[in-house]
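Researcher: Next sequence.
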Amino acid sequence: MELFKELSKININGKTEKKGKFTYLSWAFAWSELKKIAPNATAKVYHDENTNMPYFSSKAGVIVKVGISVDGLEHINYLPVMDFRNNAIPSDEVNMMDINKAIQRCTVKAIALHGLGLYIYAGEDLPEVDGQELLNNCKNLDELKVVYGGLDKANQAKYSDLKNKLKTNLK
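Model: Next structure:
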């Protein structure tokens, strides 16, 4: 638990890169920071027992599996092999560069489970909200106020006119 606390205190904001709506941390930086605090840390890329390849393939797609161990505690993460839009690449279109990139990203996520930069992944597993639908389903002014207040600033700006129109209609 001490390792988690120590790693989670490290501010990685200056080392991240924004691509589209996602934030990325370099695997080299993540590994370097982990090794400074836990020099005995090890990484393991799991291989398919049937093919001895560093990925697992099925009709559903291709996935990589990486484990990071520190002091006997292994955190394992799985990551689908994705394109630049973060869509899964069909198994018959994946190449080894795609696999390599997925392994590096999966490594960072497995390190994050030990505490380093875990906060950058908060919310990535949440579905995108359709603000327009949520606002249109409001039945009274109190509900409209709560729903609009729960939207992020970008969606509040985007749906400001709709909120004002609904506010008039719900009076």
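Model: The beta strands are 16-19, 22-25, 42-45, 56-58, 61-70, 73-80. The first strand starts at residue 16 and ends at 19.
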